[in-house]
Amino acid sequence: MKIDPDNKADLSAQIAAALREEIVAGRLIVDERLPSEAELADHFEVSRPTVREALKRLAAQSLIRTARGAFGGAFVNRLSYREAYGQQITTSTLLLSMNAISFDVACEARFALERACTPLAALRRTPDTLATMRAEIHRQGQPGLTDEAFCASDVAFHRALVDSAGNPVLSYQLAGAVEAMQPLMNMITFTARSREAIVGFHTRIADALERHEDGAAQAALSELEAYTLTLGRDVMAARAVAKG
Amino acid sequence: MKIDPDNKADLSAQIAAALREEIVAGRLIVDERLPSEAELADHFEVSRPTVREALKRLAAQSLIRTARGAFGGAFVNRLSYREAYGQQITTSTLLLSMNAISFDVACEARFALERACTPLAALRRTPDTLATMRAEIHRQGQPGLTDEAFCASDVAFHRALVDSAGNPVLSYQLAGAVEAMQPLMNMITFTARSREAIVGFHTRIADALERHEDGAAQAALSELEAYTLTLGRDVMAARAVAKG
DNA sequence: GACGGATAAATTGTCAGACATTTAAATGTA
DNA sequence: TACATTTAAATGTCTGACAATTTATCCGTC
Questions:
Q1: How far, CA to CA in Å, does A143 sit from each of A40, A154, A213?
Q2: Chain B contacts of A110, Cβ < 8 Å?
Q3: Which partner from B73, B208, B239, B243 sits 20 to 30 angstroms from A224, CA to CA?
Q4: Å between A153 CA and nearest CA of chain B
Q5: Angular region, B165: left φ>0, alpha ψ -120 to 50, beta rest
Q6: Chain centre distance of CA B142
Q7: Which of these, A205, A197, A193, lies nearest to A227 by C-alpha position?
Q8: pTM for the structure as a whole
Q9: Model pLDDT for residues A210-237, shown as the tens digit of each residue
Q10: Which of B12, B37, B95 to mutate to test the interface with A (most CBs of A within 10 A)?
């Protein structure tokens, strides 16, 4: 574990980078215990608060976990799908909200990614994932459903669609993307009018997957994309009018 | 900005969560300055080191940046594509390396994602992205190329393919995925034998995109996937023999 | 010998105060 | 006005201490 030259950057950032490199390169393996804060401070020739700041940086990325008490300390954390999800959703959400991504671009990316799943989903969809999709479709048809609940159900449906592909790596990549784009999508589903149409598309998708028909699923997804795009443009136009 | 109840979790984690929520919810906007460390310590009724640990957690996620000096402080950071890339690659790489993802699953996910790009890439590929792909293909054919350089060129080619789709959100999602999976892929391209075949597939893909033929590009990608899968299984089998 | 509770040790979490460093604005001077 | 100096505000770092937590060990009792 190498030391820091006369770098001008923050010491805690340098130390965090050094430890991160050890972990990423596999020289510190999962569940291995890092030296104690005092030992690290001694090794890097800095004070304990500086070491602690470095460790907190790693903890923020879920690279380590800490335990107090004797035989406690910092341990290399096995990054779970769940934690990775959270990281990705936070990153993607902020990236989209902070960079003025146009609705069209986000929409295109989202549906392109989802269409990547349908060939596998048509092949491998299980009674379980189909039941989940049907349940969400049914919920989306309930009259008393709030807008928030409808949007949440929408996310759950698409997540089930992605999970149908039976590939956890794919699920990880896409669930984050779909969830991050949901805030952008929400504004357009906030009308009772469009719910019926969306339920129709969802039903077509579920039906197609149940019949193992990839083509039909892709077609339904593409039409849903086109419909979403139209609604989005209408909303944008309405906003422009309201503003001007 | 709410305070912390009698929670047992670390104070710095709680404070970081509170500030993160402010940023994600948009109540702290880009380039807005956070209160100084002393003011935050006063507000949350904790010491300055504790506040600093919280701020370092946010800095690790690129949510804030800090500047020293008068009128310095912590500012909400505009998350750039570049930073988001880095986050995603780190997360994805660790997720894959720490969770015993099978080669087949990773391979399937990667090519499924790439095939999601070809319809758009066939439509929008530019002379620029085509030239990049051709240049990388040429490099991959050089006899003296090291294995590391070949793998790097392979990544660059696939990245150009993704960029051809002309959708930055898609590029962000996929470049991270492709790059994270590269270490898994590397072991199988470490044979001179397979280079020629891979160059052939790459050429077919570039040709297909140049002719705006999505179907041919998808076919070439699928064959490359099948070939990669075969090579991977051979390597695995050879390893099993060597071990047993 | 076995069990249970007090004790000790190690480690992280938190605090207080101080000093160093950096940066930009304010001030003073030619 | 232009330039150098001072000043103030903020982050970066250090020292030392204490609190809280957890495990292992020791010891007495049954």
A1: 60, 15, 30
A2: 169
A3: B208
A4: 21
A5: alpha
A6: 27
A7: A197
A8: 0.84
A9: 999 999 999 999 999 999 888 888 877 7
A10: B95
- Cβ contacts, strand C, under 7 angstroms: A 8, 34, 36-38, 48-49, 52, 55, 66-74; B 10-12, 45-50, 53, 67-72
| Average pLDDT, integer, range B190-219 | 91
Q: Token digits for B219?
A: 């076919």
B71 min Cα distance to partner chain A (Å): 19
Lowest-confidence region among A156-165, A221-230, B114-123, B168-177: B168-177
pLDDT at B146 exceeding the cut of 80: yes
**CA B123/CA B120 separation, integer angstroms:** 5
Helix, strand and coil content of chain A, in percent to the nearest 5, comes to 75, 5, 25
Chain D nucleotides near the protein (CB, 7 A): 8-17, 20-24
| Both structure tokens of B154 | 């392979």
Which of A7-11, B184-188, B218-222 shows the lowest per-residue confidence on average (mean pLDDT)?
A: B184-188
Please report, rounded to whole angstroms, the spatial distance between the CA atom of protein residue B16 and the C1' atom of nucleotide C9.
32
The answer to whether A113 contacts B172, with C-beta atoms less than 8 Å apart, is no
From the list A16, A60, A116, the residue facing B61 with the nearest CB is A60
Q: What tens digit of pLDDT does each residue of A90-149 get?
A: 888 888 888 878 888 989 999 999 999 999 999 999 999 999 999 999 999 998 888 888
Provide the greatest CA pair distance for chain A.
66
Q: In chain B, which residue's Cα lies nearest the Cα of A167? A: B105
Report the residue count for chain B: 244
Reported confidence tier of residue A46, pLDDT bands at 50, 70, 90: very high
Instruction: Kindly give, in sequence order, each residue whose CB lies less than 8 Å from that of residue B24, ignoring residues fewer than 6 positions away.
Output: A90, A93, A94
Q: Which nucleotide is nearest to A12 (CA to C1')?
A: D12
